[in-house]
Three-Cys-motif partner protein
Amino acid sequence: MKDSQTTMYDHSEIKVRLLDTYIQKYLNILSRAPHISKVHLYDLFCGEGIYENGGEGSPIIFLKAIKNVFYRNQHQGQKTIPVDCVFNDIKTSKTEKLKRIIEEKKLHYPSFGDLRFRNINYTEAIPKVIRQISRLKNEKAFVFIDPYGYKEVRASHIKSILDTKRAEVLLFLPTQFMFRFERKGAPEALLTFIEDLVPKGMWPNSHTGIDFIENLKSIFREYLGEDHFVDTFIITREKNQYFCLFFFTSHIYGFDKMLEAKWELDAEEGRGHSIVQPEALPLFSDPSIKINNKLESFLLEFLEEPRTNGEIYKAILHLGFKPKHAVDVLKTLYSSSRISVTPIGRIKIKKGAFYINYSEFSENPNKVSIQLK
Ligand SMILES: C[S@@+](CC[C@H](N)C(=O)[O-])C[C@H]1O[C@@H](n2cnc3c(N)ncnc32)[C@H](O)[C@@H]1O
């Protein structure tokens, strides 16, 4: 058995840290949303829970987050909502070990929601999961797909899950192996995966592992269309070895929160996490400068036409930046008189305010028009 299957390595640790940061935010928000009555978590390649070196896997992260949010809400007199979990792994021995750990560590009580264990092949489980999610009313689902490889996973699965409009997906892909194969002449599994996304022969060449991830992200974005959001979190294992978490949602607020989680873990570029120590940064280097430069060039082009606050919010998220980043750049452009901010209709606006956030997007997406002077 490969060592990576029984020992939790750093890259897996970073993977579960992102999962942890996100799932806490996700459960917090949903448990307080007035119209949501239940959450369903599906961990379709769940593993055994705790590795031989003590590293915690995804089911433990999920259960700890559920427990935390439950008790916090209870303590604060807030409503609590049930979170139903399905932990699936093709190997019964893994879910049996997981069950024992959950009992020993008292990680679950019935008041938190249902807890189910399954030992179904992912390929058979996925249509069932999609059917269950599409029947949900006032309920939401989160699907975590964390295979060793990628041969079972198809882009069309992700699309069907998103089309239900009730779920978000986090998918881990061993992109470094996919990239290596691409260079050597793609094997059947990679071709099958790619052909779902682009017509034969249209897959762009990638020069590096990072290029491969960027290409895959753009192609996913095109394949899924404007209404669905895609972003990546790159995990660097060794020099030039890149693995990647893909996050998909049809809900813009869910995406906003995912970007927050990602930027929390990587304040510099929000792109991913490096295990190898980065080379010493030059003195006085300010990470925000890099973000601002990228965003500024985008906004300078985007604002050649007048854009509403809602349009800017959506465009910024599609690029993988937080609304706050856009506001910082707009402030600079505004203070050097390079943009104008005009109210739409007869409303009063505050000087120097841009209204780029989720609540304005959902309630007043056409409040102001912003344009280059
Ligand atoms: C990368 S590990 C999952 C790690 C886990 N998510 C964690 O954070 O600890 C992949 C798991 O998928 C299981 N598996 C492999 N092929 C599968 C399949 N076709 N369907 C369901 N589970 C499968 C393996 O037994 C293994 O436990």
Summary: The CA atoms of residues 8 and 54 lie 8 Å apart.
